[in-house]
Amino acid sequence: MSSDDETGQAARSHFTRRDAFKVGLAGASLTIASCATATAAESAGAQAAEASDPNDGIVTDLNLTRTISEYIANIRTAAVDPEFLELGKRHILDSFASAVSCKDLEPAMLGRQYALSKSRDAENGATMLATNERCGLVDAIYGSAMIVHGSEINDFIPSAFVQPGPAVVGAAFGIAENRGGTGSDVLRSVVAGYELCGRMPKALGVRTLYANGIANHGLGPCFGAAATTASMLGLTAEQVQHVMSYACQSASGSWQWLLDEDHIEKTFVFAGVGARNGAEAALLVEAGYTGVADCLDNAEGYMNHRMFRQGADHNPAYLIEDLDTRSELPLTAYKRYPVGGPTQPAVQGIMELLPQTSPQTVESIVMEMPGRWDAFRNAEMPALNLRYLASIMLIDGRLDLVSAQSRERFNTDSQVHALMEKMDVIHAPDLEVAEGEERTEPARVTLVDSRTGTHNVFVPFVRGFPSHPMTRDDVLDKARELMAPVLGNGRTEEVIDATMNIEHLDRAADILPMIAS
Asked: Which end of the chain is more exposed for a tag (fewer CB within 10 A), N or C?
């Protein structure tokens, strides 16, 4: 699909997110370039293979269900690589920072209000993250996940198209408060949750899920929250096998989220539904429910359903490969800016050019990027629309959470609309990478200003992607930047210290009042 590059095009293009949906926009994660290129011949070939051998691709000899269940059940006392535990602490802190800074944004508020309307002040409950609001246990876990994903600032796994923090951390602390878990219990259960959140979509097949209309973004967090909850509850390996069965029944999410314009259905899919359903799966088994104990190995079970096993990238073995020595945590990215993942480098480029321009003197800004550039040119969700983001950055001299996703400003601010006419996003074919290569979503930004002339900046990556990870200090500085305006400097440092030493806490829930406001 091509775009109209005329400089006088109106700021609000007729190319909407619904158009982007038709060409396979991958939204706030990285684009699934290969998904959009599947040919009719490949589909016909898959159908022919099914007709000739209905059992083709069935895998029953890997002992997946038992192996992954033992991993989840034993992780609270097993030897875990210190690097994975360190990364787990950083991602818990990153999720806290997201919760503190996002709790009053619309998706978070709706999640909180809904949870409270169902079970306010429930006796068998928990507190929603970054608040003093208490409700039923599952409702609190749901509300916490909605809070953490209230904006585009929480973590994500680009290679799996999931955002683990909201569901996994929300579930861990909900159960910890309700059942009295230690900091070590929480940390280890979070590590397990991140593993399932990233591994399950890859085992089923990232492209395969896309081809079948199943959103990894909802499916992965369901298994992640189920693993975390099962670990926190102290379920046995036999019980966890049944948890996996109920997670299979509960995992959901449609790529229809791409049609959402307000970041509300997106937050539900990426965070709320996975947290709620995954936690419920474990709690059902704790209550005595039984299911299919070999659901991931049975020839007629979930993993072997033909919509998965006949996919080009179906890889069941990935679920348990090198569980003790390799983790999804180093593959998990941090967001430096409160915008969609693929837009981060372009946003940084604009930030670097701000001293050279102003709303009064800017003549044009052109942003070049690979992938679904056209979708980010015309997105109806403010935090994904680069022309909108560039315009508010010029006006404000910065980028904040509220403005980045302000529907009112996106729709009604005449100064923003006028500046958007001077902004463009175009494709950069030379920045594309081959399928299978690591994506960093580089960007080039060219500014033409009547006062200072022409300026160019190339941003090959933004620190935070797995290829260029944030350091420990980077993560702590990001947390300070997000939390200090709400909690103050002193309390922010207390939260950081407690989180980075969480394994020493007798009660993990002692952190919760520290982040509440």
From this structure: N
Q: What is the pLDDT of residue 441?
A: 84
- Residue closest to 224 by CA, chosen among 126, 128, 148: 148
Q: Which of 442, 459, 463, 315 is nearest to 30 (CA)?
A: 442
Residue 22's pLDDT is 41
- Do 114 and 259 fall within a single domain? yes
Q: Do 22 and 70 share a domain, yes or no?
A: no
Q: Record the pTM.
A: 0.87
Distance between CA atoms of residues 265 and 251, nearest Å:
16
Look at the chain and report how many structural domains it folds into: 2
Q: How much is the pLDDT for 207?
A: 94
Domain boundary (272, 302, 331) is at 331
The pLDDT tens digits of the residues spanning 443-500 come to 999 999 999 999 999 999 999 999 899 999 999 999 999 999 999 999 999 999 999 9
- Are 19 and 1 in contact, with CB atoms under 8 Å apart? yes
Q: 3-state class of 126 per DSSP? A: strand
Question: Are the beta carbons of 249 and 304 closer than 8 angstroms?
Answer: no
**Which residues does the chain have with pLDDT short of 70?**
1-55, 436
Same domain (yes/no): 264, 388: no
Which pLDDT does position 46 carry in this prediction? 45
184 and 89 within one domain: yes
Structural domain includes residue 479: no
Residue 165 belongs to a domain? yes
Closest CA to 278 of 338, 321, 233, 328: 233
Q: What is the DSSP letter of 471?
A: P
How far is 100 from 95, CA to CA, in rounded Å? 9
Domain of 369, CATH number, reads 3.30.1330.120
Which residues constitute the domain of residue 437? 17-26+340-459
> In the prediction, which pLDDT does 53 show?
62
Retrieve residue 145's tokens. Answer: 């996940």
- For the segment 87-115, what is each residue's pLDDT rounded down to a tens digit? 999 999 999 999 999 999 999 999 999 99
CATH number for position 270: 1.10.4100.10
Q: How many CB atoms lie within 10 A of CB 41?
A: 8
Choose among 117, 190, 111, 115: nearest CA to 146. Answer: 111
